[in-house]
Structure formats: structure tokens, C-alpha cells
Amino acid sequence: MIKNKLVLAVAPFVALLSSTAFAQETVAAGGANKFDAQAMAALGAGIAIGLAVLGGGTGQGKAAAAALEGISRNPGAAGRIQTPMILGLALIESLVLFAFAIAFLLQRNIGG
After folding, report:
1. Mean per-residue pLDDT for 18-35?
2. Any idea what the Cα angle at residue 55 is, between residues 48 and 93, rounded to 5°?
């Protein structure tokens, strides 16, 4: 179990660090171009939306689980629990959509 966690923790770093071995000579000499900025903008947009979806999905799952647990313990309070839960889920979803919009604008403005 610990070995699996270690492999999962180290694999992204190895994948990111190995790409420097294939870098072009102009980048090593300090000659960055506009395509470097476009690539980094696309990478940043992809990571941003990925993290937003991961966090939003986790938050919605925990909120729904807590609400269902509360309703199962006290079925009479279902109406008082359901409304704030739906409001919370809507706010979480709006944050994910906001992150999507920011990632889209980042890629569009720098990438095009």
C-alpha cells in the first residue's frame, strides 16, 4: 500500500522533469519564443480546470453525503436540510464554472 502511494507521488515529478531532456537548444540558450507562452497558458488552463473539477466533485460528494446522513438520522428535518444543501451545491457548481471561464479566457487571450 505504501509502495503504491510512493509510486503515485513520484510519477508526476519524473514525467515533468524528464521533459527537460528533450528541450530545444534555443530554449537552453535563453531564446524563448511566443509558443512557449502559449504552451504554458494551455498547460495552466488544463491544470486549473482539472483541479476545479476535482475540488468541486469532492465538495459536492461530501455535501450530499452529509445531507443524506443527516436526513437518515432525522427524517423530519429533511425539508430544513435539503434547501441549504441544494443552495450549497449550486454555489460549488458556480465556482467550478467560474474556474472554467477563467481557464478558457487564459487560453484564448494568451494562446491566440
Report:
1. 59
2. 90
Helix axes 34-73, 78-111, angle to 10 degrees: 180
Which class for 87: exposed (0-12), middle (13-18), buried (19 or more C-beta within 10 A)?
exposed
Question: Whole-angstrom Cα distance, residue 98 to residue 92?
Answer: 10
Length reported for the chain:
112
Please name the residue that has the C-alpha cell 521533459: 19
pLDDT digits (tens, 9 = 90+) for 56-101: 999 999 999 999 999 999 999 998 999 999 999 999 999 899 988 8
The confidence score (pLDDT) of residue 19 equals 59
Q: Out of 3.40.630.30, 3.30.460.10, 1.20.20.10, 3.40.50.10420, which CATH number does the structure's domain 57-112 have?
A: 1.20.20.10
For the segment 24-42, the average pLDDT, to the nearest whole number, is: 66
Query: Which cell numbers in the block locate residue 79?
Result: 425539508
